[in-house]
Amino acid sequence: MATSSSLVLHRCWSMLAYRGVAFPRRSPRLMLNFHSVCATLAVKASSDRCSSRFGTRTCNSKPNHLTRSCSANAFVVVEDEKYGNKQVISVTPSLYDYILANVREPEILRQLREETASMHGSQMQVSPDQAQLLAMLVQILRAERCIEVGVYTGYSSLAIALVLPESGRLVACERDAKSLEVAKKYYERAGVFHKVDVKYGLAADALKSLILKGEACSFDFAFVDAEKRMNQEYFELLLQLVRVGGLIVIDNVLWHGKVADTMVNDVKTVSIRNFNKCLLEDKRVNISMVPIGDGMTICQKR
Ligand SMILES: C[S@@+](CC[C@H](N)C(=O)[O-])C[C@H]1O[C@@H](n2cnc3c(N)ncnc32)[C@H](O)[C@@H]1O
């Protein structure tokens, strides 16, 4: 109950912020009165037409003391006793703009992102802040051998290939030829094609074939971003391929927040929720679920 009430709170607050309702800075006292404030704001949300979706909200309609000129500082105050008054940040559109403005995105990745934006499925691409984190993990590990499951047009794989040493190798698995063509074009343009071993076809087959070729325990890093219902199978295969201390990073573990909504029980959501539970209980790995992009879990093989 505690978790679901704070999630409702989070969602309600974020939704109102997204819809252009301006908020005062939240204090614990304000949050105690959240339900009455929320009701007030809900009325505002349905009746106001606000001039800007991002940044400071200035509403066109008659201002009141709650909505006059407040930035959308959205925080979640979770249950005091359970979480020790911890304020957990909620990413509003303006805050996300700020995060992106603080990402060092290489020019070639920016070009690829822009080209992909007009393509079918562009929302599948990892965000620049996620790609930066993946690249940093690869660098921290001093990884030489990496695997990606689910390349699409190559944004995350290019981010990884760019930071690999010249001797490094990235096995890039993708079943869609059309998007793979874009990825290859950018590997070429970025001068990293020699580091990428493209496996066109079903990812599970490519991973099994690496194991059969005796490449078990030889990879430092793997990123999983393909068919979500296959996550458990990819994970088991990658656990064989990655060395002790190596990382397996799984994308979309929060699935647009649906994993935490008990009312949502479609096949994909249930499968991701079950997989998250399995990871939590899996003693073969250390884990950290990171709320970046659509949520990524970083697993380290013990
Ligand atoms: C979410 S997208 C990957 C996005 C990519 N990581 C990026 O940042 O641009 C998922 C990709 O996985 C591919 N895919 C899905 N199932 C697959 C499978 N069984 N084998 C290989 N690729 C698969 C899809 O064709 C799609 O291009």
UniProtKB/TrEMBL annotation:
SUPFAM superfamilies: S-adenosyl-L-methionine-dependent methyltransferases. CDD domains: AdoMet_MTases. Pfam families: Methyltransf_3. InterPro entries: Cation-dep_OMT, SAM-dependent_MTases_sf, SAM_O-MeTrfase. One of its GO terms (biological process) is methylation. GO terms for molecular function: O-methyltransferase activity; S-adenosylmethionine-dependent methyltransferase activity. PROSITE patterns: SAM_OMT_I. Keywords: Methyltransferase, S-adenosyl-L-methionine, Transferase. Belongs to the class I-like SAM-binding methyltransferase superfamily. Cation-dependent O-methyltransferase family. Methylates caffeoyl-CoA to feruloyl-CoA and 5-hydroxyferuloyl-CoA to sinapoyl-CoA. Plays a role in the synthesis of feruloylated polysaccharides. Involved in the reinforcement of the plant cell wall. Also involved in the responding to wounding or pathogen challenge by the increased formation of cell wall-bound ferulic acid polymers. This is Caffeoyl-CoA O-methyltransferase.
